[in-house]
Amino acid sequence: MVQRRPILSLPIGLLFLLPALFFVAIFLVFPSLWVLWISLTNQTLTGETALRPQFVGLANFRYLFNPENWAVRGYFGNALRNSVLFVIGSGLIGQAGVGLAIAWAFHRRRGLLREVLYTMVILAWIIPDVVVAFMWVAYLDRDQGTLNALLSGLGLGQVDWLIERPLLSVIIFNTWRGTAFSMLLFSSALAMLPPSYLEAAAVAGARPYQAFRDIILPSIRSHVVTDLILITLWTFNTFTPYLITGGGPTFRSEVVSIYTFRVAFQHFEFGRGAAVAVVMMLINLTLALAYLSTLRREARDR
Q1: How confident is the model at residue 81 (pLDDT cuts 50, 70, 90)?
Q2: Is 72 helix (H, G, I), strand (E, B) or coil?
Q3: pLDDT (mean) for 46-66
Q4: Which of 43, 55, 107, 235 is the S-S candidate for 270 at Cβ 3.0 to 4.6 Å?
Q5: What are the backbone dihedrals phi and psi of residue 84, each rounded to the nearest 5 degrees, phi first?
């Protein structure tokens, strides 16, 4: 009996993936390659180079990583340093740390206090950015701000937060804004732990911090890694601080996303702005690969 050859030579699974691959190519691969090409030119929005950009090779990248520019505010090195501090302060210590602390403090509690706290944290996460920015500008205002009114009532004086402490202000703001994700992720992870783990630790005489260190953290390790990588990606790419400080004063709160916007859409230097975007894509790709590698390693360990 003669066997019939399949009409389609491609695997069936690949056929199902073709529509997704098409959209990935159109909306991800092609724009990335186009940005890479622009980063190798001196294209601008106005002038002769707007119509006839010239190929300049790696000149834009050499400009970004010029050691002489890294010590000067308003250049890429300053923005990258601010981004690192912003990610560490707001993402890793702030959102992940505060989220884990809230989840750990309330994971075995029920009642009105827990529900009110969780509701407030989630509301801070879902309120539109512009509304939140307006609230925080009013909250941190030097003369009429609520925070300075509280400090004055305690006899601590007033601080012009957006002028004297701009980076700290956006770190605190973004921590308040984004803690909900970490809190919910860690709460769900802690809820899946068998109660017998902590009960056995209590019987053995372990203190709360010892149980947290030796039992809780190893049990939710994959959730912690997932949270840290995702929070790092989101915090590194966020543009919300622009609504609070605009990157100022004197570029002291300018992170990489704001620097890219300023170079490309305020100074109209598309080539240099595209070079910054390529660097950001490489950083994001590195973090994403680290995340996928961690997931595969966790899957093998199971």
Answers
A1: very high
A2: coil
A3: 91
A4: 43
A5: -65, -45
